[in-house]
Design brief:
Layout: H1 2-25, E1 28-30, E2 35-44, E3 47-52, E4 56-59, E5 62-63, E6 84-87, E7 91-92, E8 109-111, E9 116-117, E10 162-164, E11 187-190, E12 213-216, E13 235-241, E14 247-248, H2 251-257, E15 264-270, E16 272-278, E17 284-291, E18 307-313, E19 332-342, E20 344-347, E21 363-364, E22 369-370, E23 383-389, E24 402-403, E25 410-418, E26 421-422, E27 424-427, E28 434-435, E29 445-446, E30 450-452, E31 461-462, E32 465-471, E33 479-480, E34 483-485, E35 490-498, H3 500-506, E36 517-521, H4 529-534, E37 539-543, H5 548-556, E38 564-569, H6 579-585, E39 590-593, H7 600-609, E40 613-617, H8 625-630, E41 635-639, H9 644-658, E42 664-669, H10 674-685, E43 690-693, H11 700-708, E44 713-717, H12 725-731, E45 736-740, H13 745-756, E46 762-767, H14 771-784, E47 788-791, H15 798-806
Parallel strand pairs: 4-6, 5-7, 6-8, 7-9, 10-11, 11-12, 16-19, 20-25, 27-35, 36-37, 36-46, 38-39, 38-40, 40-41, 42-43, 42-44, 44-45, 46-47
Antiparallel strand pairs: 1-2, 2-3, 3-4, 12-15, 13-14, 13-15, 16-17, 18-19, 19-21, 22-24, 23-25, 26-29, 28-31, 30-34, 32-33, 32-35
Helix pairs in contact: 5-7, 5-14, 6-9, 6-10, 6-14, 10-13, 10-14
Organism: Miniphocaeibacter halophilus
Protein name: Cell wall-binding repeat-containing protein
């Protein structure tokens, strides 16, 4: 076993030695962590050198010839490519070493300078001039025997703060001029250096602004103009011995009188400054003595009755706060800055209840103050609290919530706003004779108060009409039940409906006629009472809500139940123009919705109908996805193309799928609604889909649909201003064209009614000016087999009147 271990160890050792030998023979040297590679090598006289890929040049033992033959001076190497110089073994230095290390821009280290044998060297001028290294170790250069010139030896060295040349034998030197000039040395040790033979020490310390410590020995003397500068920041111009305590009051005295009779370190004395703390009321409350560059100690904040201390400044006015982190560099007086402390008093200004706020805080002069709320629930009979003001005049325009800059003790006053009183008056709302009396309400109400409506307490009566409650609008919009919340002076208008019992008894219908009843679609803001008056010979019904959405829900109530509901936009009529036929075929009502929300009355009606499916007619621009989310409890289908023309085609496809008729169709103006409404009766009765066109141009999609559906006949609704002859001629390429057109929309609606319905018993009238009511009324009319004609809002067109009365 032992023999086996011995064999293994022998193999490992042999392998290691082989690898080391291989590396050395192939120009490599192990350095511990990495392997340096030799880039170049040569000789400087008898000293071999090697230059490595880490930019280090290493010299072996031997002797150097002249500086000019150094590898970086003879053209072998570039000085800028050298960062480290290492003297690995003893080497004899050149007799003239001047400028040896001069001009290296990237030199970082010079290692083992003590391996230099300088026994024969005589000139070291500019030896280290301008080097950028951070350390020079010549502690064992005591073998110098013949050196004469060290001028500029350490000139222009910026990265070394402390230089020890005490081990350098300078006994034979005669020229030390500018030796340490233009450098950033802070300390120089010359404790063992002899200058007895020096004849030229001119400017040896020239321009060394940071030099503040010199260690001198028995054989040192200052000779001539040494250039040692006067004291600069942070030092005085005086010098003092660290051990002996010998004091020189100036650099001039130091260089003149130092006689080399002792060994000591001399240092410049650091400046000290006086700092006074003035309370700014002509009183110095503290004084500190601070060495140059040190920070000032903060005092405990001073106190003064009625004031709050803020900060110290170097000026009495306090323009700039003193920075205690900033070093002291001169005598200074600091002044205390104060803010006057002020208070706020709250005044109820005539309050009759509650508690006035109390603020015990003290505020700095010039600070911002946020005022308290009415936390004590101040109140004043007949008034409401409006806020606080700097004046007691109850001017609401002066109410403030904060004081931007408080300068003195301040009182703020409650501002009281008189509670507004509103009245309710009643109007009979009729031009003809009215019996009874209008209610009179003498009460005054505050805003938000609930008002109980009087009802018909005065027994108002009107010929041929029945009293039907009160509304805030003469036309019947915004009807009022038993109560309402008052927010302003309000007039309530009596609402009247025709008394059919009177009509039946006093104005019997002509037994030979056919139309006995009329249904008006929409409120009195759409079809006014004047319409009712013009048609008093007929039994009248009105389907209406408080707005278009309410009207659509009211019309839907004519359906007992419906599993399907069509929902269309109440803001854009274009998508639902053609949906009336589909609604009829599905026996479903059309109701209206806002783009992003379903009105409450519409939602309630969908629920009442027992619907399980809702068809949205139109794209997302008409009815958004928010509405779809509201309908999550129902099956939702959307019929909507990229525009109104394509939507009509999609609706038409559904209509054709539900009816037997595949040969006929209706074409109307897609930019206006009346013709489409007027043509609904025919389209529904004859199971024809309604397509849309532009007045002067047939859309490509519509033309393609007419062709693809293989229609044999297309009926155009409206005159040439609605659907031009150009469009008609395009249609004629695919089908026979018929046109139903009156002088206007009203006559067109009559022509359609006359063509479709023979001797109708009931007619539906919708607005020819406001589209939503007509759209929701069309399926109702079609469902019941009633013709629907159009009317102006305040006056029945003569052609419509003739139609109705001629069929009476």
């Amino acid at each position: 076993m032992k023999r086996r271990i011995f064999v293994i160890l022998s193999i490992l050792i042999f392998s290691l030695l082989f690898n080391i030998t291989y590396a050395k023979t192939n120009g490599q040297e192990e350095t511990g962590e990495t392997t340096k590679e030799i880039v170049d090598e040569g000789e400087w006289r008898t000293s071999n050198w090697k230059y490595y890929n880490n930019k280090e040049i290493v010299f072996g033992g031997g002797s150097f010839s002249t500086v000019e033959e150094a590898p970086w001076n003879n053209g072998t190497l570039d000085k800028d490519d050298i960062e480290i110089i290492t003297f690995k073994a003893k080497v004899k230095a050149p007799i003239d070493m001047s400028y040896l290390f001069y001009g290296f821009n990237n030199l970082k280290e010079i290692n083992n300078l003590n391996n230099f044998d300088i026994t024969k060297t005589t000139n070291m001028s500019h030896l280290f001039d301008g080097v950028k290294i951070k350390e020079i170790d010549i502690s064992r250069w005591d073998n110098a025997k013949e050196i004469k010139n060290t001028s500029y030896m350490f000139n222009n060295i910026k990265n070394i703060k402390k230089l020890d040349v005490s081990g350098f034998n300078t006994a034979t030197v005669t020229d030390m001029s500018y030796m340490f000039a233009n450098s950033n040395f802070e300390e120089i040790d010359l404790s063992k250096n002899s200058v007895l033979g020096v004849k030229n020490m001119n400017n040896i310390f020239l321009n060394t602004p940071y030099l503040n410590k010199l260690t001198l020995g028995l054989n040192f003397r200052f000779k001539g103009n040494t250039g040692l500068a006067k004291g600069t920041t942070p030092y005085t111009d005086s010098w003092k011995g660290l051990k002996t305590g010998v004091y020189y009051k100036s650099t001039e005295e130091f260089t003149k009188n130092y006689d080399g009779n002792n060994f000591d370190t001399y240092y410049r004395i650091i400046k000290k400054y006086k700092v006074d703390f003035d309370n700014n009321f002509n009183e110095i409350i503290n004084t500190q003595e601070v060495e140059h560059g040190n920070k000032l100690k903060k005092l405990e904040n001073p106190k003064k009755e009625g004031y709050k201390f803020t900060y110290w400044s170097i000026d009495k006015e306090g323009i700039k706060e003193f920075d205690f982190e900033k070093p002291i560099t001169n005598n200074v007086t600091l002044y205390a800055n104060w803010k006057k402390e002020v208070s706020i008093v709250y005044d109820g200004n005539g309050n009759t209840g509650g508690v006035v706020p109390i603020d015990e805080s003290k505020y700095e002069e010039g600070s911002k103050v946020t005022l308290k709320r009415n936390e004590g629930n101040l109140e004043k009979t007949g008034y409401t609290f409006a806020g606080w003001s700097l004046e007691a005049d109850n001017d609401e325009s002066k109410v403030i919530t904060e004081i931007a800059s408080i300068e003195e003790d301040t009182t703020v006053y409650a501002v009281w706003k008189e509670v507004p009183k509103y009245r309710v008056s009643y109007d009979a709302n009729a031009d003809d004779i009215v019996l009874g009396t209008v209610p009179i309400d003498n009460r005054e109400y505050e805003k938000g108060e609930t008002v109980d409506v009087f009802g018909n307490a005065g027994n108002l009566a009107r010929k041929d009409y029945k009293f039907d409650g009160w509304a805030k609008d003469p036309l019947g919009n915004d009807t009022i039940e038993d109560t309402f919340i008052i927010t302003k002076d309000t007039i309530l208008y009596a609402q009247w409906v025709l008394d059919r019992s009177v009509i039946d008894s006093e104005k019997p219908i002509n037994p030979t006629g056919t139309i006995k009843e009329i249904t008006l679609i929409g409120g009195r803001s759409t079809l006014t009472e004047n319409i009712e008056s013009q048609l008093m010979d007929f039994v009248q019904y009105r389907l209406a809500g408080k707005d278009r959405y309410g009207t659509s829900a009211d019309v839907a109530k004519e359906y007992k139940k419906s599993s399907i509901v069509l929902l269309a936009s109440g803001e854009k009529y274009t998508d639902e123009l053609t949906a009336t036929v589909l609604a009829n075929k599905l026996d479903a009502p059309i109701m209206l919705t806002r783009k992003d929300a379903i009105p409450a009355e519409v939602k309630a009606e969908i629920n009442r109908l027992g619907a399980t499916k809702v068809i949205l007619v139109g794209g997302n621009n008409s009815i958004s996805e928010k509405v779809e989310k509201e309908l999550s409890a129902y099956t939702v289908e959307r019929i909507g193309g990229p525009d109104r023309y394509d939507t009509a085609i999609l609706v038409g496809d559904r209509v054709r799928g539900l009816t037997g008729s595949k040969t006929d169709g209706v074409l109307v103006d897609g930019t206006n609604f009346p013709d489409a409404i007027a043509m609904t009766s025919m389209a529904v009765e004859e199971n024809m889909p309604i397509l849309l066109t532009r007045p002067g141009q047939l859309p490509e999609s519509t033309a393609k649909t007419i062709k693809d559906w293989n229609l044999s006949k297309v009926t155009i609704g409206g005159g040439v201003n609605s659907v031009s002859d150009t469009v008609a001629n395009e249609v004629k390429k695919f089908a026979t064209v018929d046109r139903i057109a009156g002088a206007d929309r009203y006559e067109t609606s009559v022509l359609v009614a006359e063509q479709v319905y023979v001797k109708p018993k009931h007619a539906v009238i919708a607005s020819g000016e406001v589209f939503p009511d007509a759209i929701v009324g069309a399926p109702y009319a079609a469902k019941n087999g009633y013709p629907m004609v159009l009317s102006r809002g305040n006056n029945v067109s003569e052609v419509v009147k003739d139609y109705i009365f001629s069929n009476r």
